[in-house]
């Protein structure tokens, strides 16, 4: 259950200004497994913390002071213990462990966002210069660095998992025979759909090195038979034929509105009469004032991922689907996790 922390507007601003330090305090606490050690022991003082972390008392005291000032730990009967939010989100067996998100911020995003202002001036992803590899998007660069690619997909899988569970409960797929999952990533979503619908065929369309990653993961032989992989470039290659539905999940946020409309037109052309496109994405509100997570993730798309995307709104998604030619369009907004689903019927 969510709890709130008392914080003045001056302290809120202070955390933003010292954001880098606040992030490093939190990440270092995780690196030293401090939160788990506090939990397992029922609380530690400075001397015990130093021994548990294998460091001297002075640095242990710096870390404990910082984390306590950020209200992530608190002192009870002379010992430091975890605050409720740490138990929920910073312990591996907590309600929702945020380790993969902290990892991608640390290893991929933070060092590139120093180029946010320059990316604004040039209206492109200048931050990409910090990464090795081919191409002009984060996705193609990651193909050259498997360790970073894993960090990316660990977070992507984790983030889309919960949003996908919600989609599965919400949308009935039983009328669909074969769906293409454009930018289907490591295949997590396609596999789950194939498990839920035993007749359904799925085709994951993604970059070659990514589809390889996905193919390796399927264990169930019936699912393995029905989940196909089609390596290709969604921007330049033709879509595979023969499907009656196309999933466009967490792809809309990557590209510009114009490019999305163009790609959805390609989906329209690849579908038979009566076919369906499903655009499912994290969205901002139509006023452009939130959510907080939408506001915080959008600079990543400008400065790094593609140089042209952001957390667009459900209204933007609906307009693109209509402009692509779909005659009947349904919008399901206000879903959980700030997601919206727009369904276009040909
Ligand atoms: C944000 S992830 C979305 C993954 C998945 N659809 C989900 O909802 O979890 C974007 C995916 O698009 C793929 N992608 C990006 N650019 C691509 C391109 N030009 N051609 C094919 N796939 C691409 C990436 O490899 C990545 O797997």
From TrEMBL:
Coiled-coil ranges from the UniProt annotation = none
SUPFAM superfamilies the UniProt entry points to: S-adenosyl-L-methionine-dependent methyltransferases
Could you tell me the superkingdom of the organism this chain comes from? Answer: Bacteria
Q: Boundaries of each O-methyltransferase C-terminal domain copy?
A: 133-327
The keyword Cytoplasm is assigned to this record:
no
Q: From which residue to which does the signal peptide run?
A: none
Q: Which Pfam families does the UniProt entry name for this protein? A: Methyltransf_2 (PF00891)
Any idea which UniProt keywords this protein has? ATP-binding, Methyltransferase, Nucleotide-binding, S-adenosyl-L-methionine, Transferase
The protein in question is named: Methyltransferase
């Amino acid at each position: 259950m969510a709890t709130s922390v008392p914080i003045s507007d001056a302290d809120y601003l202070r955390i933003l200004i010292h954001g880098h330090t606040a992030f490093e305090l939190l990440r270092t606490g995780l690196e030293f497994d401090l939160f788990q050690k506090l939990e397992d022991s029922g609380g530690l003082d400075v001397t015990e913390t130093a021994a548990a972390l294998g460091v001297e008392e002075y640095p242990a005291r710096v870390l404990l002071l910082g984390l306590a000032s950020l209200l992530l730990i608190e002192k009870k009967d002379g010992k430091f213990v975890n605050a409720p939010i740490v138990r929920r989100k910073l312990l591996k067996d907590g309600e929702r462990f945020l380790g993969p998100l902290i990892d991608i911020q640390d290893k991929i995003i933070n060092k590139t966002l120093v180029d946010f202002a320059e990316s604004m001036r040039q209206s492109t992803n200048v931050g990409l210069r910090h990464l090795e590899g081919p191409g002009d998007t984060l996705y193609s660069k990651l193909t050259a660095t498997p360790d970073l690619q894993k960090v990316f997909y660990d977070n992507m899988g984790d983030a889309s998992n919960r949003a996908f569970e919600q989609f599965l409960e919400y949308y009935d797929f039983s009328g669909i025979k074969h769906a293409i999952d454009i930018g289907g990533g490591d295949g997590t979503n396609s596999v789950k759909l194939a498990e839920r619908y035993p007749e359904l065929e799925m085709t994951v369309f993604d970059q070659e090195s990514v589809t390889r990653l996905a193919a390796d993961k399927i264990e169930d032989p019936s699912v393995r038979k029905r989940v196909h992989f089609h390596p290709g470039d969604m921007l330049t290659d033709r879509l595979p034929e023969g499907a009656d539905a196309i999933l466009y999940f967490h792809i809309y946020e990557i590209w510009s509105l114009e490019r999305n409309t163009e790609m959805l037109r390609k989906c329209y052309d690849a579908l038979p009469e009566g076919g369906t496109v499903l655009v499912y994405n994290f969205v901002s509100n139509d006023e452009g004032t939130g959510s907080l997570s939408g506001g915080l993730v959008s600079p990543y798309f400008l400065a790094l991922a593609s140089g042209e995307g952001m957390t667009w709104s459900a209204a933007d998604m609906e307009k693109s689907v209509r402009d692509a030619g779909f005659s009947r369009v349904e919008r399901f907004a206000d879903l959980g996790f700030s997601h919206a689903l727009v369904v276009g019927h040909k």
